[in-house]
Amino acid sequence: MSEHFCFTCNRLRITADGNLKVCLHGSNEVSLRDVLRSGATQQQLETVIREALGRKKRQHAGGVAYQPLSVYQSRESRSNDQSTDDPY
């Protein structure tokens, strides 16, 4: 990435399975579902979210080149790729 925007990024994502991602390009997640199911108070939930935000990196992957979020290939490119055992 030539221009790091992570420090100014204000985006979060809650995944379909209840995990909080503080970096849309990262793989680290915090399970909000588990926190909620354990009977946590609103204050405890806020603490978990604030702690996750506190661990957010100032820049993505330490300057490693940008990697797109989508790992899906088009049907055509998959049929041309003979080097993989991936059934998709």
TrEMBL record:
Keyword Hydrolase set for record: no
Name of the featured protein: Molybdenum cofactor biosynthesis protein 1 (inferred by orthology to a human protein)
CDD domains for the chain: Twitch_MoaA (cd21117)
MF (Gene Ontology): 4 iron, 4 sulfur cluster binding; cyclic pyranopterin monophosphate synthase activity; GTP 3',8'-cyclase activity
PANTHER family: MOLYBDENUM COFACTOR BIOSYNTHESIS PROTEIN 1 (PTHR22960:SF0), MOLYBDOPTERIN COFACTOR SYNTHESIS PROTEIN A (PTHR22960)
Domain annotation Molybdenum cofactor biosynthesis protein A-like twitch: ranges: 1-61
InterPro entries: Aldolase_TIM (IPR013785), MoaA_twitch (IPR010505), MoCo_biosynth_MoaA/MoaC (IPR050105), rSAM_sf (IPR058240)
Keywords in alphabetical order: Molybdenum cofactor biosynthesis
GO BP term (any one): Mo-molybdopterin cofactor biosynthetic process
Pathway membership: Cofactor biosynthesis; molybdopterin biosynthesis
Domain of life: Eukaryota
Phylogenetic placement of the source organism: Eukaryota, Metazoa, Ecdysozoa, Nematoda, Chromadorea
Key word Glycoprotein present: no
SUPFAM superfamilies: Radical SAM enzymes
Any single Pfam family the record assigns to this protein: Mob_synth_C
Region of interest (Disordered), ranges: 57-88
